[in-house]
Amino acid sequence: MISNLQSINYYIPELILVGSILLAILFDLIPPLKKWNYYIALIGIVATGLFLSMSFGSDKSLFMGMIAIDSFSHYFKWLFLISTFAVLLVSHYTKELDGTHRAEYNTLLLIVLFGLFLMSSATNLIMVYLSIETVSIASYILAGMLKGNRASNEASLKYVIFGAFSSGLMLYGLSWLYGISGTTSFEGVRQALVSNGNPLTIYMSILMMLAGIGYKLSMVPFHFWTPDVYEGAPTPITAFLSVAPKAAGFAILIRFFGSVFSNSDLTPILGLEWPVLIAILSAATMTLGNFVAVYQNNVKRMLAYSSIAHAGYMLMAITVLSNTAIISVVFYLTIYLFMNLGAFFIAIFVENKLKAKTIEEWKGLGFRSPLVAGAMVLLLMSLTGLPPTAGFIGKVYVFSALIENDQFYWLLVVAILNSVVSLFYYFRIVKSMYLVGTDETAKVTPHPVILGCILVLSFPVILLGIYWSPLITFIQSIL
Predict the structure, then answer these.
(1) CA-to-CA dists, residue 375 to 100, 267, 304, 436, angstroms
(2) Which domain holds residue 435?
(3) Backbone phi, then psi, for 298, in 5-degree steps?
(4) H-run or E-run covering 340
(5) Positive or negative CA dihedral for 78, 79, 82, 88?
(6) How far is CA 291 from CA 64, 344, 386, 409, 476, in A?
(7) Phi and psi dihedrals of 341, rounded to 5?
(8) 75-123 pLDDT, tens per residue?
(9) Cβ contact 247:119 at 8 Å
(10) What is the pLDDT of residues 216-259, one digit of tens each?
């Protein structure tokens, strides 16, 4: 552990983010400079990525053990940077945000990004709460950016209510852990639980912690906000919320459960069966997400339930929490970033050009915009988990983690059946694009920037479905 002053040397990427936030606010206050706010945000993200690359491989505990800078957090920070950069880029060219306070929008995205950085690095109970709240409060505002839109206002209000409830439960759970251990560091809490922890107290703490973290993951039963917020929020924000905070939620879940409720070999402390609880929640999450998605007609709402289902798939690996399982989750999250952002960016294009919000309104898109429709088919195949896409490889690795540990075969059966169900509702969009006739024959094309983002995000989906070993090897080398 190093001193606070020395810690600053390893905290430069985060400091650049903070500086970018302050500059964005300052430029917004000076009318002649206001137009440069967007570029400040983009440059800030690029500069953060540059300095993050320079510090890659560091393994330090900073600010008296409050956060850890290591390869695990670095990898997740790259996922956050890529998703934020892509969303910020596409947001600049979407009609949905016309007339909104763009400067505030860009600044809030950077604030959320800073909070996500803290979430992936948190090694202290206080930092866990502060990082989640930093992300949540800015996200509430982003969900309601369309102030004149009733659905957006409703989405923001529901997000606040559910978020406050989940945060309250988590804070109560944190207070229990502090009361048992007398410390807020992960390692200190774990040692106290092993020495004199009561199983009932530990289980109650786990349940309350899952309320806060599960809210970020859209995990059942803390998923109720997801469909309404995804539908009512601006689509770029929906895309962002479906990827970045979810990845941060898994980062903090892996670090917290691996450090506090597990021994050094990642087995549960005191022989407690908390993995069974995770397995039940995983099965409930994927089942509810997939079966309710079948009945959705709104594309954004359907993708919301799809994101719930994917959280369930990834939770499968947390039930064993082995090194193989952690690698599979990180690999799956990487793939999920590309395929989910790509699908939402196509939804942005369709909503901008065709004013289409329901699946039926996508009719004829396969002939009016063949390239975009083809990319959508590829992304939907990957979300389903069909070969030869990256989504198939991701599911194979998650499933193999259970098989390798010779546990929870029933959960594996549930996941396979759920994947079959997902095929039905994903391909309703394909059916509408190619098999439903339309009188409209005029070609439609997205803005070059949006089209470029869609193609860039689609390329890894097919590449990693054919040649994924370098990414897996890299992930194995840093975890």
Answers:
(1) 30, 42, 20, 18
(2) 273-479
(3) -75, 130
(4) helix 323-354
(5) negative
(6) 46, 20, 19, 21, 34
(7) -60, -40
(8) 999 999 999 999 999 988 887 776 667 888 899 999 999 999 999 999 9
(9) no
(10) 898 988 888 888 888 888 888 999 999 999 999 999 999 999 88
- Do the domain assignments include residue 93? no
pLDDT of residue 98: 66
How many structural domains are present in the chain? 1
Angle between helices 370-384 and 409-435 (to 10 degrees): 160
Which residue has better confidence, 99 or 371? 371
Instruction: Check if the beta carbon of residue 471 is closer than 8 Å to that of residue 461.
Output: no
What are the structure tokens assigned to 208, written together?
């309350």
Q: Which residue has the tokens 């930093």?
A: 134
Q: How far apart are CA 454 and CA 372, in angstroms?
A: 8
Residue 349 structure tokens: 């294009």
Phi then psi for 122, rounded to 5 degrees? -60, 130
Question: Residue 279: inside a domain, yes or no?
Answer: yes
234 within a domain of the structure (yes/no): no
Look up tokens 């915009």; give the residue.
Answer: 369
For residue range 132-171, what is the model confidence (pLDDT) as tens digits?
999 999 999 888 888 777 878 888 888 888 888 888 999 9
For range 458-470, the mean pLDDT: 93
Evaluate whether residue 301 is within a structural domain. yes
SS3 for 52? helix
- Give the closest residue to 78 by CA, choosing from 322, 333, 306, 382: 333
Longest dimension (CA), the chain: 72
pLDDT of residue 1: 62
Lowest mean pLDDT among 47-51, 126-130, 212-216: 212-216
What is the pLDDT, as a whole number, of residue 356?
83
Q: Residue ranges of the alpha helices (H) in 122-198?
A: 125-143, 150-181, 186-196
**Smallest Cα–Cα separation from 338: which of 295, 381, 305, 399?**
381
pLDDT of 439 strictly over 80? no
Residue 9 CA, distance from chain mean position: 28
Please provide the DSSP assignment of 416-476 as one string: HHHHHHHHHHHHHHHHHHHHS--S--------HHHHHHHHHHHHHHHHHHH--HHHHHHHH
Q: Is residue 35 very low, low, confident or very high in pLDDT (cuts 50, 70, 90)? A: confident
Quickly state the pLDDT bin for 365 (edges 50, 70, 90): confident
Which ranges of 182-298 does DSSP label H, i.e. alpha helix?
186-196, 199-217, 225-232, 235-259, 274-293
CA distance 162 to 421: 28
Query: Which of left, alpha, beta for 204 (phi over 0: left; psi -120 to 50: alpha)?
Result: alpha
